[in-house]
């Protein structure tokens, strides 16, 4: 090691969520203080992360086992669990893919709203 570095703690956020960074540390013989590159990779997919948490016995809030792909699936979930609900992008980061829905609202497409 040129600088005598034998470990890196990535902090929170950006570098801690990069599987390629964790792998580069490992490849360079530097200990990555955090999960393995494979675990970081798995945690990047929120559906897989939820499944792994459930498998490990971690309590989770109500959710789906796979991505919702239709309005009917979303309505069924809301009828079962009530509002508010949060839609989360499976690969979203930093909360950017989250949308809170507080009530059911039916909207006409923009082109029909003046009818």
UniProtKB/TrEMBL annotation:
This is Pyruvate carboxylase. It comes from the Eukaryota. Residues 1-115 form the Biotin carboxylation domain. It comes from Ilyodon furcidens. InterPro entries: ATP-grasp (IPR011761), ATP_grasp_subdomain_1 (IPR013815), BC-like_N (IPR005481), Biotin_carboxylation_dom (IPR011764), CPAse_ATP-bd (IPR005479), PCB-like (IPR055268). Keywords: ATP-binding, Biotin, Ligase, Nucleotide-binding. Residues 50-106 form the ATP-grasp domain.
